[in-house]
Amino acid sequence: MIVHRYLNLLCGVDEAGRGPLAGPVFAACVVLHPARKIDGLADSKILSEPHRERLAIEIKLHALAWAIAAATVEEIDSINILRASLLAMKRAIAQIPVLPAEVCVDGLHCPEILFPSRAIVKGDACVPQISAASILAKTGRDAVMRAMHIRYPRYGFDQHKGYATHEHLAALRANGVCAIHRRSFAPVRELLFPTPRSTELPF
After folding, report:
1. What pLDDT score does 12 carry?
2. At what angle do helices 128-151 and 49-62 cross, to 10 degrees?
3. 36: Cβ–Cβ under 8 A, 6 or more apart, which residues?
4. Can you give the pLDDT at residue 203?
5. Nearest partner of 104 among 11, 32, 29, judged by Cα
6. Are 136 and 59 spatial neighbours (Cβ–Cβ below 8 Å)?
7. Considering only 128-132, 190-194, 198-202, which range has the smallest mean pLDDT?
8. What is the SS3 assignment for 24?
9. Contact at 8 Å (CB) between 11 and 105?
10. For 176, which DSSP code?
11. Residue 167 falls inside a structural domain
12. Is 129 within a domain?
């Protein structure tokens, strides 16, 4: 991989999928091209799905560099969701063929990397590079969850993307836990290891 150094360029990083009960956690990083403006960048959560998909195409076409990575369900259950999110971020950053001046990460924590880094709370709403990363992470993960729906059609992953909606919880109770459910998350863990109810009389 050829690595290029550009002065004063920012790399934005964000994750998608910390909250769901199923599926991997994704992260993306984006270095925007100084001469190629992308209009409409915003926190992916406030954008409609069609709008996100259109922007994801633009970002991939016009950004100076971008990368998407993930941490698996097994890694989430092994090291916890925060560490798995940071691991996915680190993997994404390792893929980009540029050396940014600074890496800005949405939230409270930064992954352990060699570049100068800064955590920015709600950065996906105010830093265009992080907004772009949030869009790539979200659209990348959504595509995987739609594919998981084909493999596990009883859970509705194409609709809720693994989040703990009423429909998802009902499907979990009806069908049990599948291979991509996060066993360390309480609603899944409680199905696998139900807490015994006391049979003692209350007097």
Report:
1. 98
2. 120
3. 62, 63
4. 46
5. 11
6. yes
7. 198-202
8. coil
9. no
10. -
11. no
12. yes
Q: Would you give the DSSP letter of residue 161?
A: T
Residue 131 and residue 124 in contact, taking contact as beta carbons nearer than 8 Å: yes
Burial class (CB in 10 A: 0-12, 13-18, 19+), 79: middle
Q: Total structural domains in the chain?
A: 1
CA distances to 13, 18, 68, 146, 197 from 110, rounded to whole Å, are 9, 15, 16, 29, 42
Query: Is 113's pLDDT higher than 60?
Result: yes
The pLDDT assigned to 194 comes to: 86
Per-residue model confidence as pLDDT tens digits over 32-81? 999 999 999 999 999 999 999 999 999 999 999 999 999 999 999 999 99
Asked whether residue 121 is assigned to any structural domain, the reply reads yes
Q: Which domain holds residue 105?
A: 4-141
Q: Which two tokens stand for residue 87?
A: 């691991």
Average pLDDT over residues 13-25: 98
Q: What is the CATH number of the domain that holds 102?
A: 3.30.420.10
Instruction: Give the closest residue to 92 by CA, choosing from 80, 73, 106.
Output: 106
Query: Is 186 among the domain residues?
Result: no
Judged on CB neighbours under 10 Å (0-12, 13-18, 19+), 156 is middle
* Contact assessment for residue 24 and residue 144, using Cβ atoms and an 8 Å cutoff: yes
Q: Where are the beta strands (DSSP E) in the chain?
A: 4-5, 10-16, 25-31, 65-71, 98-99, 102-106, 117-120
- 3-state class (DSSP) for residue 36: coil
